[in-house]
Design goal:
The chain has 28 helices and 22 strands. It has 779 residues and is of the alpha/beta class. It folds into four domains: 195 residues, no CATH class; 230 residues, no CATH class; 148 residues, no CATH class; 89 residues, no CATH class. It has a five-stranded mixed β-sheet with strand order 13-12-14-19-18. Strands 1-2-3 form a three-stranded antiparallel β-sheet. The chain has a three-stranded parallel β-sheet with strand order 4-8-9, sandwiched between helices. The C terminus is likely disordered.
C-alpha cells in the first residue's frame, strides 16, 4: 500500500528507507566508487541512461493494463507498436536520479569536506600530544546512503519517471518473487504522466484521527492534493462534497433560485434543501445498517451563507430526541464527536467512497464546473483505483464485515457506471483483521509472507502469495476448503505459526497446555501469535495447498485411528492399536500428506526428524501422533512398566494422568475412564478397557467436563503433543534469530554524526525496526 501511495499519489514523499534494505550496500558501493575518483575528474560510466549498477537497486512499480482494441482511445499514448491489436500495456514507474552529474558532484564535495575536516582535527590532535589517539568517529556523510537520508536530500536528487514496457517479455512471479524485465539500453522516459485521463486514484489513509467529545483532535494533517486527503471530520467532508456537487451559488440551475432566495428568508428552507441534496448519500449509509432502530439520526444544520453555514463546529449533528418521533416535544442534538469512534470511522469511510465515485462521474455541479473551466469533457477515466488502509480501526467485528461486504457496491452504485461496461473499479484494502478477510473471496487475497535470511549476511525480505488459484478448480474438495476456512479460521493469515488438531477436545485443552508449560517470556509459545485449527483427520490434508503457500511453521496433531482389514467385507475396521499385528492407520493425513506411511509398525519406528516435512527453505511441518506410553499399575504387576499405544488423544491423556482420572467422578467418558482404571488389574486390561470407553463418546463434552473438574496445570501433557510443541517453539526461536541477527551487518560500522545533530544512527535502531516490521499483512 505504501508503494502504491508513493508512486501513484505522493511521489515527493520518498525517502531512503523506501530503497529495499538489501540494496543499501549496493548504493553505498556506488558512493565508495565515486570517492576514489580524483577531484576534478569527470564521472566515468555513470551518466544517463543509468548503468546496471543503478538499474537493479532503484525502487520500481510496474503497472499492467488490459485493454481491447475498441478501447484504444484510452491508451493511444501508451501503444508500444503501431499495429497493436489489443491485450496488455505495461508502464514502469521508477525512482531515479534526476541529474546524476549533480548528485555525483554534491556528494563528493560533502564527503571530501568532512574527510578533510577529520584529517585536520587528527593532525592537530597528534601535534599537540604525540600519545593522543586519533578520532574514530565519522562525520556526515559517511557514505552515499547517509548523504541521501539526511534532511530530505533524496527528494532533491531523485524523481519518479515512467517508461513503456514490452508486453511480449512479461516475467510472471515465481512463488511470490517478482522478476521485472530489464529496460532496453537507451530507453527514454515518457514526457507526461501516463495514467492521466486513464486512472482516477483515490486513497483513504489508515490514520484517520477521530476524536471523542472534548478531545481537541489531531488537526488536519491530510493532503488535499487528491480526494483521499483533507480533513478527517465528517462535517468537513460534507462541506467539500457540497461545494463540488450541490452548491446552488455556483453556476445555478433555475431550480436553485428558490433555494438562494430561501437562504435570505429562512434558515429552515435551506436546511430542507440540504437534506434533499444529501438524501441519496445518506440512503447509501442506511444500506450499511446505520442508523439502526436505536441509533441517532444524522442531521445537517446550516447558518446563513451556503458554504459558511457548514463551517461551524456543529454543522453535523445527531438527533437524540426529535419532534419527528411523535411523543417527543423537545429537540436534543449532539455534535458529531459524540458518536462512537467506530461509527465515525464507518460513516466517514463510506461517505468518502461516495465522494470518490461522484467525483469520478462528475456528479451534479462538478460537470458544469469542468465545462466552464474548459476541461476535457469527452471522456471520464475508464479505471477507478481506490486504496483503503486498515478500515477496521475502531470498528467491531460485525461492522468490519458489513463494510467489506458493501464497500465495492457503494463505489459502483451509479447509473452511468452500471450502463457503461468500460468503467471499471478496483478496490484495494490492506488489513490485519480476520473479520475483513472472512468476507473476502480467496481469489482476491494477497498474503505478504515474511522471508528470513538463509545466511547471516543476508537481510530479511517478503514475497507475495497470490491465493487466487491456490485450491485449483471449483471441485468438491476446493469448495470444502473455502467453506471451512471462511467459516472458522481466517486468523491463520496473521499468525506466527499454525497448529492443526484432530478434534474439539484438543482444541479446547491445547491453549491451557501451552499456557502452563510453554510460557517462557522470551521464546515461549504462549507469547506467540498461534492459530489453532480444528480439522478432522479425514480432512486436514485438504488444507495442504494453503499451508504450503503460507509456509508457516505448522504442527499437525492427529490420531492414529488404527484398523485391520476385515476378511469378509475387505474394508478396514477400527481396532485397538497393537504392534506386530499388521495394523494400519486409517488417518488420511498420515497416509496421504506426511509421512505417507500407512503401517502402524513403521509409524511407531519413525524418528523425530522423520516426522518433519520441509515445505521450503523457510517453513516446515511436523506431525504428532500417539506413540507407546510406559504405564504402571499399583497391582500384582509391581512397578514393571508396560508400553501401550493409545488410539486417540483422550485415552492417551488418561494413560498419562492415571491418578488424576482414577479419583474423578463426573459423567460420560470421564466416569467410564475412572471406572476402567479402578477395574483393571493389568496394563493390557487397562488399555483395552480405556479403548472400549471411547466408543460413542462426545469428545467435546469430555474436554468441558475435564476443565470443570481439574485445574489444567495438574494435567500432564501427552508426550507426543509435548514433543510437537517443543519442536514448534524451537522453530519459531530459530526464525527469530535469523530475522533479527542479519541486519546488523548493514549499519554496524556506518555510524555517522552530522554537526549539530542530536541523533546518532545505531545498529539497535535497525533491529527494533525489523522486529516491528515482522508483522504480517494481508491485502
Amino acid at each position: 500500500m505504501s508503494a502504491l501511495k508513493l508512486f501513484l499519489i505522493k511521489q515527493s514523499r520518498f525517502n531512503i528507507t523506501d530503497f529495499t534494505l538489501s540494496n543499501w550496500a549496493k548504493l553505498i558501493s556506488i558512493g565508495n566508487h565515486w570517492e576514489k575518483i580524483k577531484a576534478g575528474e569527470e564521472m566515468p560510466d555513470s551518466k544517463l541512461p543509468l548503468g546496471s549498477e543503478w538499474e537493479e537497486i532503484l525502487p520500481t512499480l510496474d503497472i499492467w493494463i488490459s485493454a481491447s482494441k475498441s478501447e484504444i482511445h484510452y491508451i493511444s499514448h501508451l501503444l508500444p507498436v503501431l499495429k497493436w491489436d489489443g491485450g496488455l500495456i505495461g508502464v514502469r514507474f521508477r525512482l531515479e536520479p534526476d541529474d546524476i552529474e549533480k548528485l555525483y558532484k554534491e556528494y563528493l564535495s560533502a564527503f571530501t569536506a568532512s574527510s578533510d575536516t577529520l584529517k585536520l582535527a587528527n593532525k592537530q590532535n597528534s601535534a599537540a600530544d604525540a600519545a593522543a589517539q586519533k578520532y574514530s568517529l565519522k562525520l556526515w556523510p559517511s557514505d552515499l546512503q547517509d548523504f541521501l537520508s539526511h534532511r530530505g536530500r533524496l527528494g532533491s536528487f531523485f524523481k519518479v519517471k515512467s517508461y513503456l514496457l514490452d508486453y511480449t517479455k512479461i516475467n510472471p512471479p515465481v512463488e511470490g518473487k517478482a522478476f521485472a524485465q530489464p529496460l532496453p539500453a537507451g530507453s527514454e522516459a515518457l514526457e507526461a504522466n501516463p495514467l492521466k485521463g486513464l486512472i482516477q486514484i483515490d486513497l483513504i489513509d489508515a490514520q484517520r484521527g477521530f476524536s471523542d467529545l472534548g478531545d481537541p483532535g489531531t488537526g488536519d494533517s491530510g493532503d488535499d492534493s487528491h480526494e483521499g486527503g483533507g480533513s478527517r471530520k465528517l462535517s468537513e467532508q460534507l462541506k467539500r462534497y457540497y461545494s463540488k456537487h450541490l452548491d446552488p451559488s455556483e453556476l445555478p440551475d433555475p431550480a436553485d433560485i428558490d433555494a438562494l432566495e430561501g437562504i435570505h428568508l429562512a434558515q429552515k428552507q435551506f436546511d430542507s434543501k440540504l437534506e434533499v441534496g444529501f438524501e441519496k448519500a445518506f440512503d447509501e449509509l442506511r444500506g450499511m445498517g446505520y442508523p439502526g432502530l436505536t441509533d441517532p439520526k444524522l442531521r445537517i444544520v446550516t447558518k446563513v451563507e451556503p458554504l459558511e453555514g457548514m463551517s461551524h463546529s456543529s454543522s453535523v449533528q445527531y438527533d437524540v430526541l426529535s419532534p419527528d418521533d411523535g411523543a417527543v416535544t423537545i429537540t436534543a442534538k449532539l455534535p458529531e464527536q459524540s458518536s462512537g469512534l467506530g461509527y465515525q470511522n464507518l460513516i466517514s469511510i463510506i461517505f468518502r467512497l461516495i465522494s470518490f465515485r461522484d467525483n469520478w462521474m462528475l456528479e451534479g455541479k462538478a460537470q458544469k464546473k469542468r465545462d466552464a473551466e474548459g476541461g476535457d469533457t469527452k471522456i471520464h477515466p475508464p479505471l477507478h483505483l481506490v486504496l483503503v488502509e486498515e478500515p477496521e480501526a475502531h470498528l467491531h467485528a460485525q461492522v468490519q464485515q458489513v463494510f467489506i461486504r458493501k464497500a465495492y457496491n457503494v463505489l459502483r452504485n451509479h447509473d452511468q457506471i452500471k450502463k457503461n461496461p468500460h468503467f471499471k473499479t478496483q478496490l484495494v484494502v490492506s488489513t490485519h483483521s480476520s473479520h475483513v478477510v472472512y468476507e473476502a473471496d480467496f481469489a482476491a487475497l494477497r498474503y505478504f509472507r515474511r522471508i528470513p535470511p538463509l545466511r547471516k549476511a543476508e537481510t530479511p525480505s517478503s514475497v507475495v502469495a497470490n491465493l487466487s488459484g491456490l485450491f485449483g478448480d471449483a471441485d468438491k474438495t476446493q469448495r470444502f476448503r473455502m467453506r471451512y476456512l471462511r467459516t472458522t479460521h481466517c486468523d491463520l493469515f496473521f499468525a506466527d505459526a499454525v497448529i492443526i488438531v484432530e478434534g474439539a477436545a484438543e482444541r479446547m485443552l491445547l491453549p491451557h497446555f501451552i499456557r502452563e508449560n510453554f510460557s517462557d517470556p522470551i521464546h515461549g509459545l504462549y507469547h506467540r501469535y498461534l492459530s489453532i485449527l480444528e480439522v478432522g483427520g479425514s480432512f486436514a490434508h485438504c488444507l495442504r495447498p494453503l499451508i504450503d503457500a503460507l509456509a508457516l511453521p505448522t504442527l499437525l496433531i492427529t490420531d492414529l485411528d488404527t484398523g485391520l482389514k476385515d476378511a469378509t467385507s475387505k474394508r478396514y475396521k477400527s481396532e485397538q492399536p497393537a504392534l506386530g499385528e499388521g495394523m494400519v492407520t486409517m488417518n488420511s493425513t498420515l497416509r496421504d500428506w506426511h509421512p505417507k506411511q500407512p503401517e502402524l509398525d513403521k509409524l511407531a519406528a519413525l524418528s523425530a526428524n522423520d516426522k518433519v516435512l520441509k515445505i521450503d527453505d523457510y517453513g516446515s511441518l511436523r506431525v504428532a501422533f500417539q506413540m507407546p506410553v510406559a504405564v504402571r499399575l499399583d497391582s500384582n504387576e509391581g512397578t514393571i512398566p508396560h508400553n501401550v499405544i493409545p488410539y486417540t488423544f483422550e485415552d492417551c491423556l488418561a494413560l498419562e494422568n492415571l491418578e488424576t482420572f482414577k479419583n474423578l467422578g463426573g459423567l460420560g467418558m470421564i466416569a467410564r475412564f475412572s471406572e476402567a482404571i479402578h477395574n483393571s488389574k493389568t496394563v493390557p486390561e487397562l488399555a483395552t478397557n480405556l479403548y472400549k470407553a471411547l466408543d460413542g463418546s462426545k469428545k467435546g463434552r469430555f474436554a468441558l467436563d475435564l476443565l470443570f473438574e481439574v485445574p489444567p496445570n495438574q494435567l500432564v501433557v501427552p508426550g507426543y503433543i509435548a514433543e510437537g510443541l517443543e519442536w514448534l517453539q524451537k522453530e519459531l526461536q530459530e526464525k527469530d534469530e535469523k530475522i533479527l541477527v542479519a541486519p546488523i551487518s548493514i549499519k554496524e560500522t556506518k555510524e555517522a554524526v552530522m554537526p549539530g545533530d542530536d541523533e546518532i544512527s545505531s545498529p539497535m535502531g535497525l533491529l527494533i525496526e525489523q522486529e516491528i516490521d515482522s508483522s504480517k499483512e494481508t491485502v
